[in-house]
Amino acid sequence: MLFHNKLITWYLQNKRHLPWRETKNPYAIWLSEIILQQTRVAQGLPYFEAFLTNYPTVQDLANAHEDEVMRLWQGLGYYSRARNLHFTAKTITHELNGVFPNNYKDLLKLKGVGEYTAAAIASIAYGEIVPVVDGNVFRVLSRIYGITSDISTATTKKEFQAKAQELISHEQPATFNQAIMDFGAIQCTPKSPQCPQCPFIQDCVAYNTNQVDKLPVKLAKTKVKKRYLDFLIFVDNDQNTYIQQRTKKDIWQKLYQFPLIDRFEQNDINVQQILTEDFKNQPVKDIVQLNTDYVIHILSHQKLHIHFWMIKCEKLARNENYEIVSWNQLNKFGFPIVIHNFINSINTK
């Protein structure tokens, strides 16, 4: 039996029932693919539903305020996806008359749409014979066909792209792509794959040569930097606080935060001295360190070590670098999830 026939047969018996698979609407498919980049299906599903509820069409998303989009994205991480999502919605609405490109080549021109996402939209919405290639596909094909090339290189990606193009069903490209995604997600998993129940067990090179746990090969490792953040949570007698929007091209761009002391080296800080230098017009009643142990927050390339400090004041003075808002209004702003969770855990009174 051909690879794609065997794969699709497995898929029809085992597939996950997901809302974006019930439509050919490129907007819904695009939305789901952007959300599911770097995100598990279980985590991404509520966000997909929330975005479709708030923005049923690409025009609705284009017309939304960026702060609203960022707040709705809060907790998903990799926030450049949300910024690109909003930018591309405006591009489609205002430059493409609200119509998505109907082919892989033109979809690739959209900001935030890479090869995998373009292939998914092109095949599922328009039936184009173009395969998806991601971590699941690397894993499935490397194991079944015994491909030992290093998947961290561009050359290897082209090798897998060519192999997937050779294998894809010309009659059912959409079903094939969804099948190989699911096969990698629930059958040929990174750890403890379900080999005894695998329809490819007789042909699988990795299984028959005892290399399942060695494939795919990835030699390059991401270097993770340590970063130390101290957030200063000012609260006055009227329950007002300072916040600011992150605008630099760094982590959490366009999200909000409290005043911050930021460094890549671990060293002791003198909060009182910093307040005297940077907030000289703000009288302070009390300084309380809210957590003695670091809150650890891990990003793809950074491991954040976070302390939170409460700075109690009679009344906040105007400061050109910060916006003064009521504590009860903080839920209207998009914060990094680690700050959002801490906000909900503390008592400011």
From TrEMBL:
SMART domains: ENDO3c. GO terms for molecular function: 4 iron, 4 sulfur cluster binding; 8-oxo-7,8-dihydroguanine DNA N-glycosylase activity; adenine/guanine mispair binding; metal ion binding; oxidized purine DNA binding; purine-specific mismatch base pair DNA N-glycosylase activity. Signal peptide: none annotated. Gene3D superfamilies: Helix-hairpin-Helix base-excision DNA repair enzymes (C-terminal) (1.10.1670.10), Hypothetical protein, domain 2 (1.10.340.30), Nucleoside Triphosphate Pyrophosphohydrolase (3.90.79.10). It catalyses: Hydrolyzes free adenine bases from 7,8-dihydro-8-oxoguanine:adenine mismatched double-stranded DNA, leaving an apurinic site. Pfam families: HHH, HhH-GPD, NUDIX_4. Its EC number is 3.2.2.31. It comes from the Bacteria. Its cofactor is [4Fe-4S] cluster. NCBIfam families: mutY (TIGR01084). This is Adenine DNA glycosylase. It comes from Myroides albus.
